[in-house]
Amino acid sequence: MVFENNKNKAVTFSYDDGVTQDIRLIELLNKYGLKCTFNLNSGLLSQKGILMREGNRVSHYKIHKDDVKYVYDGHEIAVHTLTHPDLTSLGDEEIICQVEEDRVALSDIAGYNVVGMAYPCGTCNRRVADIIKDNTGVKYARTISCTKSFDVQEDIMLFNPTLFHLDFDDMMRMGEEFITLNADTPKILYVWGHAYEMDYNGDYWVRLEEFFKLISNRDDVFYGTNKEVLLP
Asked: Deepest of 83, 123, 178, 203, by most Cβ within 10 A of its Cβ?
């Protein structure tokens, strides 16, 4: 694996659920020249919801279907299943339906062939991964099991991210480590989360931007979507 322009270091982001907070997140990503993959449930687009998190009411409004292509322009749209079930609890045909129908619908909306995925609820196992690999157009899929490592992984159907975006202390520490790393072999810094989680606390957006500022604009780093990093 070699990234664009023969760079050995890559940074990528992955955010789930397709919520309206993605709009603010994308503004920040674009400000710092960063790329992200957004994992959407096509069967839940346009729906409204409120979550109670950390004692706060948090908006969980989904991007309207008609706005998806515009909102995520310049980034990658990927599968998160039609309706966000625990795939490990479903039969084979139900898994295929949830994944492939979402992928086809999102491909139609995006105007390109969608090939990436994040497992809903983070629930996955070898059985589910193999069913998806053998019966759908998905080429890679992300878990929520963080490695706290930059090492490249061989199994991209059960790909583990480096960090969760609310682990700010670890994120800044590992961000510093990554940008100073003299990489002789390919290394990936992969961060995942949900944009609505940034509304838990008024300081979270500020802290995330500090991380973006830290890792951006490095000549020896490739900034790409999940697809661009994992399927070069």
From this structure: 178
